[in-house]
């Protein structure tokens, strides 16, 4: 399976053809057609049929960036969701309320059977897992290494608050409380352990673009590689925040060239500071993220 890299992951409600089309026609790196939280219980059968029809109507070359958030595996809708959408060949599936890698393995079995039945390439549909929406899931975030089809981990704060019986997930200063910042850190560490991308959760106030920019820039520095979005206006801010700046690229080039000029050296001085091999690895990773070598 080819890897998949995305800065912006934009949700679109699966019961709104207009909003799905607007999202798909926009500049988000990935679009998530939502069959879970965005759709009321009574609307789920119609939404899954609508999402399948929408996918089938888009050019095949475009479907790699069109993903679907299905309903949780332990509920009554997930299999029906998958049976409807797999023949339309979405680029991937978002698994909500993942309790651990065993849920990704079950999802892989379902997807494999449905891909074979539909005559499509087995293993083509990728998976991004929401790993902190249940209390149980918090304890398994570091166990996803080797999970089939997995390309990214992300996290959520709203369902986690419900799971633990919290009245709010934010403190008086407006920032997330300790449990939810812990969830963010565990997602990042779990993604690193699994060798997949870490994707930050939504910024709920879609009008607060300045706050979104500040947060996106912070989590990129922390190691996140993308962010979920709930409104098209957020996409360009996220894309810009997760793209390396010219100054960062210039510094990374200088570090790579410095080590190249001194082969075999483990540490080297630059601008009054000592750089070692982890600095070189980060510089190379940043250049790769910028499409440079």
From TrEMBL:
Cofactor(s) essential for the protein: Mg(2+)
Gene Ontology BP terms: oxaloacetate metabolic process
Record-annotated HpcH/HpaI aldolase/citrate lyase domain positions: 7-232
Keyword Secreted part of the UniProt annotation: no
GO molecular function terms attached to this record: lyase activity; magnesium ion binding
Gene3D superfamilies from the UniProt entry: Phosphoenolpyruvate-binding domains
UniProt KW keywords: Lyase, Magnesium, Metal-binding
Residues involved in Mg(2+) binding: 133, 159
Binding site for substrate: 69, 133
Pfam family for this entry, one: HpcH_HpaI
PANTHER family in the record: HPCH_HPAI ALDOLASE_CITRATE LYASE DOMAIN-CONTAINING PROTEIN (PTHR32308:SF0), LYASE BETA SUBUNIT, PUTATIVE (AFU_ORTHOLOGUE AFUA_4G13030)-RELATED (PTHR32308)
Protein name: Citrate lyase subunit beta/citryl-CoA lyase
Organism: Actinocorallia herbida
High-level lineage: Bacteria, Bacillati, Actinomycetota, Actinomycetes, Streptosporangiales
């Amino acid at each position: 399976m080819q890897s998949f890299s995305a800065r912006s992951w934009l949700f679109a409600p699966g019961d709104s053809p207009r909003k799905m089309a607007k999202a798909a026609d926009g500049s988000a790196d990935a679009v998530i057609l939502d069959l879970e939280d965005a759709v009321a219980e009574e609307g789920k059968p119609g939404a899954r049929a609508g999402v399948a029809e929408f996918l089938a109507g888009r050019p095949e070359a475009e479907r790699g960036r069109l993903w679907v958030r299905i309903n949780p595996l332990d509920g009554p809708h997930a299999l029906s969701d998958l049976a409807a959408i797999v023949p339309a060949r979405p680029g991937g599936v978002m698994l909500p309320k993942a309790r651990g890698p065993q849920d990704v393995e079950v999802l892989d079995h379902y997807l494999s059977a449905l891909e074979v039945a539909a005559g499509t390439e087995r293993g083509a549909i990728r998976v991004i897992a929401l790993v902190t929406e249940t209390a149980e899931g918090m304890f398994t975030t570091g166990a996803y290494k080797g999970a089939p089809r997995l390309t990214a981990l992300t996290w959520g704060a709203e369902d986690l608050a419900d799971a633990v019986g919290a009245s709010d997930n934010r403190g008086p200063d407006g920032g997330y409380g300790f449990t939810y910042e812990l969830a963010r850190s565990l997602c990042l560490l779990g993604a690193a352990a699994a060798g997949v991308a870490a994707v930050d959760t939504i910024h709920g106030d879609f009008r607060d673009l300045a706050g979104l920019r500040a947060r996106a820039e912070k989590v990129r520095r922390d190691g996140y590689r993308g962010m979920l979005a709930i409104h098209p206006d957020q996409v360009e801010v996220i894309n810009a925040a997760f793209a390396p700046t010219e100054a960062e690229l210039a510094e990374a080039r200088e570090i790579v060239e410095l080590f190249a000029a001194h082969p075999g050296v483990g540490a080297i001085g630059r601008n009054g500071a000592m750089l070692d091999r982890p600095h070189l690895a980060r510089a190379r990773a940043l250049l790769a993220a910028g499409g440079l070598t």
